[in-house]
Design goal:
Elements (H helix, E strand, L loop, with lengths): L21 E13 L2 H5 L6 E2 L1 E11 L5 E7 L2 E2 L10 E2 L3 E4 L2 H10 L4 E3 L1 E4 L4 E6 L2 E25 L5 E22 L3 H4 L3 E15 L3 E2 L1
Parallel strand pairs: 6-11, 7-8
Antiparallel strand pairs: 1-3, 1-13, 2-5, 3-4, 4-7, 5-6, 9-10, 10-11, 11-12, 12-13, 12-14
Length: 215
Amino acid sequence: MWSVPESTSQAADWPVSDPPPWPARVRATLWWHRSTSAARELGQGGRTIPMTLAMMVDYLDSPVGPYREILASPVLRMPGRRIGPMPRMGVPFIAVDSEASVHGGRTHWELPKVLAQFDGDVLGSTAAQGDGWKVNTAARAKGPTLPIVGALGFAQPTDDGRLALASARLAGRFRYARVDVDSVGPTLPNWLVAGSHHGIVITEGKMRTGPAKRK
């Protein structure tokens, strides 16, 4: 399974989760910055957009109950015939505080989820920590609250050379934010850049993640 060291796990025995779709109510902080050279090297080939996208998510409910999550995509895959009309994330780093969610990510979407501990509020200051790594974020929301409707696409490389394509559709409300980030780990500081970045906070949202199609 495609992953960086921070999201590598030798464990294989996880509680079984229901198959998608997975509906959920969420709160989240998202941020982005220009990809570093290390991030571009993680891009897995193909045409890419040199933008790193990351997020801290609080799932208030889901088919596996409430849990929290951090994920990051070093670059975005360019739209095209293979992946469809929207850019998609490739996620080699993702961690949650739910064993059933680990199973769901790895089994249903080729997402290399591992277990982590979380502290704080995803709309304010949050710390996520796992085996040998840690990410701290502090979001400062500014301006009005506005509606948001859209989708996030995933394109995960599989062991047989294909892509697992999936989409998460979201409707809710958001605010612009500045997000201060700091990371520690074997690879994260090289591509999840420390500093203050543009972002948004999703103050309330309903999300539905559909099944993956392998191409």
